[in-house]
Protein: Sulfatase-like hydrolase/transferase
Organism: Neolewinella aurantiaca
Amino acid sequence: MKTHHHLFFLALALVFFGSCGGPTEAVSDTAGEEAPNIVFIISDDQAWTDYGFMGHRQLNTPNLDKLANEGLTFVQSYVPTSLCAPSLASIATGVYPRRHQVLGNDRMLPDDKPEDKEERKKIRSERYRPVIDHFRQLNTLPDMLKEKGYLSFQTGKWWLGNYANGGFDMGMTHGDPQRGGRHGDYGLEIGRKGMDTLYNYIDYALEEEKPFFLWYAPYLPHRPHNPPDSLYQKYLPLAPSEYVARYWAMCEWFDHTCGELIDYIDGKGLTGNTLFVYVCDNGWVQEENAEGYTKKSKRSPYDYGLKTPIIYKWSGKIAPQYNTRSLASSLDIVPTVLGMLNMERPEGLDGIDVLDESALTKRETLYGEIYAHDFSTIDNSLFYRMAITDPYKIIVPDEKNKPGEVVRLYNLSEDPFEETNLADQYPQIVDQLSTRIEVSWKQ
């Protein structure tokens, strides 16, 4: 699918929203004030280009456009890995996959060779159990928020067994393999089958007179791409194929659900004291003539798999701004939320508080890592490591697991779709960024 037209329309979006190359303004002082409600909105399989506020010509995403316009929106922002389970685990913990050990969606050891589907499910469940056990020992954001009296609710995607494994007080995902638990089970109904469970959680928190943390990570616009027919028919004459039309319709369907959630919170009079955070778990570029995704999107080390806008909105507390230059990461979300709540930052977090002007200015590099979908250990499953700077990005294939692949270097400011490998032209930059990756891993 042709994507270069997005550059022109992204420029138009920057004119509309305004832009800034420097650090953001800090959040207003909140010491002694009522703790805000916190709502995480996490889309599933959506390219960084596929929003109205990012300049897409056909897609309508009015609710996310409004959120971006009213919030602090980072454009040069990334997740550390381009697959659902590890990306979501990093959002919840604020650490790289190599630390939380959720490297991929499924865990299979080298000698595992299941012959049928049911045997594979059984082995997969057994192999994933120690990953879940390790994750339960980590400090997640819901765990941290208990100090402030928060009630935490999980809906949507969740790969780590029962919602309680992530520190949530309540949730939709039971995680029982005997009942089909794998990556969300009942949680995957949110959005696709209505929003009532979310509303019930909010009402319960109000009855309990406690602040709430809400994890809204619906199975949208993720496959199956089965949008309402009205949306499909809307995009069919606009898209290059029926497959793209279905994907675009799914993106707008997701946006509709976001609007419903935001409107419900507003109807309860909670908007002024609610922090909204938006991020996507990983990217997606729809194949024009097939149901799948292109090789340079999901599960890949390219920006179409890793890049996502990240939005923070808290009315009256965070100044609206469209930040087009500062490097930001989903790893920043946990420390940024803690900073807004004047909470002590625990040791070991890999991100920064993006409202700390000094930290944002000093940041020079973001890092990423890609593993096998069916992983075993870091050593046996690591595919790529990345370093992202302004303007260069390096992709370093693992010599053991990706033999024969070359190092790739791109100038993202001139080549945002990563088409021209500059590694041979700039060996010094390759050496410099490769060294930064090694130092990061040793830390």
In short: The first strand starts at residue 37 and ends at 43. The chain has a mean pLDDT of 93.
